[in-house]
Amino acid sequence: MRSSSNIIWGLLFIAAGVILLLDNYGYVNAWYILSTYWPIILIAIGLKILWDVKRKPVERIVGESSKKDWQRSASEDAGYSSVTEDDLLKESNVMGDIEVTVKSGNFKGGYVSNVFGDTKIDLSHINAADGEHALRLSGVFGDVKIDTPHNLPIQVSGNTLAGDIAIREYKKGGFGQTISYKSSDYDTAPKKLHIDISQVFGDLKIY
């Protein structure tokens, strides 16, 4: 993630000012938003302080199902990248960008949690399992990008406090956004994927 301490503080002050301004005009309830999200903001600030401590990262490369190799990277960005053939995605990370490429022939969803960093998930190579399956994502600071097969019907739901949203032909931006998208043939499709996202700060792109 490219953010510096000054950018993080600037974004926090801008977000607070916009929320208070919208509250003055009756568009949002500032007290509800701040009282709900202030613990997450404190956690994010603490993580940013830890992030500023220089350390060498670990890059995780996952090849065949259940086969994992760990390698040291010379990059200054913490986090990892992985390629997996597992049918159920299970990824959890605290700090750093993560990039996951899934090549499952019977994909059944899963979960991805990245507290502080960008998340990129490439599902364009999967063959989804029959029925409806859920993929859940959560994070505090960071952009999210997901590539899906164009012939796979998807439903996307969730929320984001601040960031632009682009889901295929659907685009939306602003603060306190509720995410709601469904492919036209989703209800009748034999194979489909429900993506549920909870992201506090960051852009969301699903293609």
List the helices and strands and how they pair.
Layout: H1 5-24, H2 30-51, E1 58-62, E2 68-72, E3 79-84, E4 89-95, E5 97-102, E6 110-116, E7 119-122, E8 131-141, E9 144-147, E10 154-162, E11 165-167, E12 170-172, E13 175-182, E14 191-201, E15 204-206
Parallel strand pairs: 3-5, 4-6, 5-7, 6-8, 7-9, 8-14, 9-15, 10-14, 11-15
Antiparallel strand pairs: 1-2, 10-13, 11-12
Characterise the protein shown here.
The chain has 207 residues and is an alpha/beta fold. It folds into two domains: 5-51, no CATH class; 58-206, no CATH class. The chain contains two helices and 15 strands. The chain has helices at 5-24, 30-51, and strands spanning 58-62, 68-72, 79-84, 89-95, 97-102, 110-116, 119-122, 131-141, 144-147, 154-162, 165-167, 170-172, 175-182, 191-201, 204-206. The strands form three sheets. It has a seven-stranded mixed beta sheet with strand order 3-5-7-9-15-11-12, with no helix packed on it. It has a six-stranded mixed beta sheet with strand order 4-6-8-14-10-13. It has a two-stranded antiparallel sheet with strand order 1-2. The two termini are 21 Å apart.
